[in-house]
Amino acid sequence: MEYIRKYCLWKFIFFLLAVAPCRLCLAEDDIFTVRDANGLEIQIRFRGYEEISPGGLLQYKKGDRLSYEASVKNKSNRSFPQLEMQTSLHVASSQCENLTAGSKLPGPTISPLHTASLTPGVSFNFNDAFTLSDSLCPLTAVLQLRLQYIQRGVIKAETIISPIPLSIE
Hints:
The protein is mostly beta strands. The protein has one domain (28-168): Sandwich (Immunoglobulin-like). The protein has one helix at 2-25, and strands spanning 31-37, 40-47, 51-52, 58-60, 65-74, 80-94, 114-118, 123-131, 139-151, 154-161, 166-168. The longest helix has 24 residues, at 2-25.
């Protein structure tokens, strides 16, 4: 009897030390560095996902609220006096005939326009959220971030696609 209690205690301790922290790793606090664009470091922290699949997809269900925080940090030695940022959700692959790769997800999946002035070393954070339509068929989506800024009198724009795929079922 004593042996069984000790065995169960050790098993529980192992779970707390080994398994529980790994499960907490998926606790929606993962920050993904998306890319460096012309001296701007872009990071995204996704929230509201159910879990991370073995293939690395953040899994959401239809009707879920997909929310995230984007952070843009100026790591260059120049200023961005009028930086405009906007995000949107796009199809990567789909089982629906009417949703092709690259198309915008149906519904309100474009964020408001965010504007900031970034001097060297300064960051700008913004939060956005989309409610995923209940009528979506199973698909994989990606978040796109569009940046527009003026450098040396020339308007420049970049579209950055998050390397983190989102599975919606």
